[in-house]
């Protein structure tokens, strides 16, 4: 079932969804199920599965020189989506990224997802490779999320990369895209970011999922600005409960977001990370209640594969 159909049929109630990480290479699917099982009682409408681009490691040759060897630390997004839909009968939403993939690679993944009956995709540029100062697209790959959306939309119209294929089967993917209430890190300002976001929607993005935020004002203001700019698709807020003091430094640095002064003060007053976890739960509960009161279509939780905090929050909401 498409995400936009879930939202259209929600009868004014706020839906629940969450995002998981594929396990590190060498770990089994059971680690995924252990993170999903505790959240099933809250009837998630869909589950996102992230995709992490390849990284490089240096391997020494016998002559003492080194080769850069590509490696993927978290493989398995396509297979995990199939396993989720088979086991839980819940829509899985794979992340498809540009980094590390040619357009041929992307088309192959899309064909496999279409074979498996996957209805939804979150189309993302993806992060820069570790050690790179900026995002570098793969040779022969999509340069950004807009290009990726165009490729997926083409497949929805039966247009494949092989120009000799004139009657390709039309896929039916519902395409989602990311958005940033505090603007994307590469955008010079929010206005220019909104212009690019509108182009993604015009290209075929049917729903948007926000970067995490901790002050609802950013979300409310962002939604209003989107509507003023003719961006009228559903905008799903992304929620991440804070869980460690180190995140006061890491989250703003990595994700380029602000943390409210009251939250920072509450975390700094904690004597242990166990206390921080509780602060994170309480903050997220209040944040979610306000979002629900204002009609947020879905609450989407970034669980990072750990369900404890999300479960504690949902027990107070659903």
Provide a compact summary of the structure.
By secondary structure, the protein is α/β, with parallel strands linked by helices. Helix content is about 40%, strand content about 20%.
Number of strands: 10
The CATH class, by name, is Alpha Beta
Largest sheet: 8 strands, parallel, barrel
Rg value: 20 Å
Give the ordered list of helices and strands: HEHEEEHEHEHEHEHEHHHEH
Low-pLDDT parts are: none
The CATH architecture designation is Alpha-Beta Barrel
Structural class: alpha/beta
Number of domains: 1
- Give the DSSP E fraction (strand runs of 2 or more residues): 15-25%
Query: What would the CATH topology be?
Result: TIM Barrel
Termini, distance in Å? 22 Å
**Proportion of helical residues:** 25-40%
Estimate the global geometry from the Cα principal axes: globular
Strand order of the largest sheet: 1-2-5-6-7-8-9-10
- Average pLDDT for all residues: 91
Number of helices: 11
What does this structure look like?
The protein has 318 residues and is α/β, with parallel strands linked by helices. The protein has one domain: TIM Barrel. It has helices at 3-8, 30-36, 77-88, 103-115, 145-156, 190-203, 216-228, 247-255, 261-268, 273-293, 308-314, and strands at 15-20, 46-49, 55-60, 66-71, 91-97, 120-124, 174-179, 207-212, 235-239, 298-302. The strands form 2 sheets. The chain has an 8-stranded parallel barrel with strand order 1-2-5-6-7-8-9-10, surrounded by 5 helices. Strands 3-4 form a two-stranded antiparallel ribbon. Helix 4 (103-115) links the parallel strand 5 and strand 6 (120-124). Helix 5 packs parallel to helix 6 (190-203) and helix 9 (261-268) runs antiparallel to helix 10 (273-293). The longest helix is centred in the C-terminal third of the chain and has 21 residues, at 273-293. The radius of gyration is 20 Å and the shape is globular. The mean pLDDT is 91.
